[in-house]
Amino acid sequence: MVFTSPWMLLGLLALPALAAVYWLRSRSRSVVVSSLAFWSDQRRPRQGGRILERMQTPLTFFLEALILALLATAAAGPARIDREVARPLVVVLDDSYSMRAKLEGDARASVRDAAQAAVAEELRRGNYAARFLLAGAAPRFVGQSLYGVGDADEAFAQWSCESPWADLSRAIALAAEVGGPQSRILVVSDRAPVGPPAGGQVEWWAFGRKLPNVAFTAATRSATAQGERVLLEVANLSDSPVSTTLTVEGGESASPTASTVALKAGAARQFFFNLPTDATTLSARLQDDALEIDNAVVLLPASTRPLRVALPLRDARLRAPIVRALNAAGQAVVVDQRPDLVIDDDPGAMEGEAWRLEILAGKAAAAYTGPFVIDRGHELAQGLSLDSAIWSASPEAKISGLPVITAGNVTLLADREDASGRHLLQMNFAADASNIQDMPDWPILLANLLQWRRTALPGVAEANVRLGQTVPVRLDRAVKEVAVAIPHLPAINIEPRGRRVDVPADHVGLHAVELPDAAYQFSVNAVSRDESDLAACCAGRWGEWNESQVHCDRTVSIGWILLLAAIVVLAAHQAVIAARRKGVGT
Question: pLDDT digits over 28-67, tens only?
């Protein structure tokens, strides 16, 4: 039951006043007189007076008190909420991993558990046709049909809270679009809204707590000429100094090694490890605190397979700078058979799975000093500047494909992809009148090419990724679907696009892409500083559905029942008074 005018309950203050009337009653006193002949009434008066005596509570007192209570309650506008029609509700659940933070005083309960209990209670209390929207990096609905109270557990089971951030603004916009203008929106998070929700459609419930937390905020493992290099960064995301234990296992260590790490408030510390090329999986862990998901990382060995490059070059002046650049990159080996990349100075046919870079000198070459137009979105252009470069090229060279680098209307480097995904790169370049082969841009260009070609080889492009990324996996042949093993969850099947499958890295731990004759692994780690920082978490409620006429509770007034009851009690009161007067008269 609710009250539409709760301030009218102040009328209940009349009850103490009524009690005071019955408490302040008269007491007779003895008076000596000579005769009673002139007294009209010889009985002792019982009403009124200024003398305090014991309170008298006849039946009329209770009837009058009941009448006053009924009238005051009826004036407050009592009403019951209409539960006959189910109201549409979209529940937006913050799916970021800060929702996993433990509540103070309870090592087992988390912010997510408290939020789930509150949402379940709201669903039991109201009559809703509810849908659940998980707000992660990309919001998504759980299921396609409406959920009732009994179906809520199915939605909660998919609320894993493993996203590196929650795009709540986008999720609310999607909820309003799908739910329509009549639907209510309930946002469940651990942080306050940027501004109080307006319009009455959105209620925002936050269950977070400001807690200290120590977390891994960076974890990388990369191949070098001497082996592998590992970087771990540990940050103290709190307002006070803290000491924790860092345990590292694997790599070249035969047994786990533990060390104490002392950090000032808000400070971060980096740790570097050098590992041999054949080192095994490396894992690191911090001691438990408010948030466990960011206390552990697992790093797989980086891919060390060199790229097989064929160099059927006839021009010695061109071969020497290319070999120097390949050796500087440290990612390639020159071969004669089964190459992954062919660098030639003569046009030729595409063979096997190999990509081709054709360096064509042409005739009547001219030297260009810029300005050069570079497609910065292309993989080959990363880090190129071409400042002070002299690029000699032939305006008559037949270069086909999408331009990557141009000088005026002359294409210097172009890229063309065929139906099978192979790339033919053509460079308009004359070495004898150029200086680019002696500049840092030359090894950068070739290193970009090697890295780009490596990402197209069968397997994962990167063995260690951040939570929330999409991991492209190249297949050695076309298949209808691949199975992906996910930690602590059933395997899923994904349909490839050609010979590539994009695997979402939505869960922490080791993932495996399984094929009939091959398997590829990659590790997913939670290393987001912003999400691990619990300083902005808080608890509270913002917005009110009843502020809007559209989204407020539909009520049915029951005040008339109380008024009718007051009339009945008033009639009974009059009957009691009449009976008392009749008794006095007799």
Answer: 456 677 776 666 655 555 554 444 455 555 788 888 888 8
d(CA 335, CA 333): 6
Q: What predicted TM-score, i.e. pTM, was given to this entire model?
A: 0.70
Q: Dihedral, CA atoms, 370, 375, 376, 380, nearest 10 degrees?
A: -100
> How far is Cα 462 from Cα 464, in angstroms, rounded to an integer?
6
Give strand ranges (E) for 437-487. Answer: 459-460, 464-466, 470-474, 482-485
CB 350 within 8 A of CB 423: no
CB neighbour list of residue 277: distance below 8 Å, 6 or more residues apart: 223, 227, 228, 304
Tokens of 59: 């039946």
Instruction: Label residue 401 exposed, middle or buried (CB < 10 Å: 0-12, 13-18, 19+).
Output: middle
CA distances from 107 to 117, 120, 160, 290, 352 (A): 17, 22, 18, 9, 58
Indicate the pairing of strand 555-557 with strand 539-542: unpaired
Measured in whole angstroms, the distance separating CA 442 from the mean position of its chain's CA atoms is: 42
**Other C-beta atoms within 10 Å of 280: how many?**
13
Strand ordering across the sheet containing 500-504: 459-460, 470-474, 500-504
Distance CA 426, CA 414 (A): 5
Residue 27 has pLDDT above 50, yes or no: no
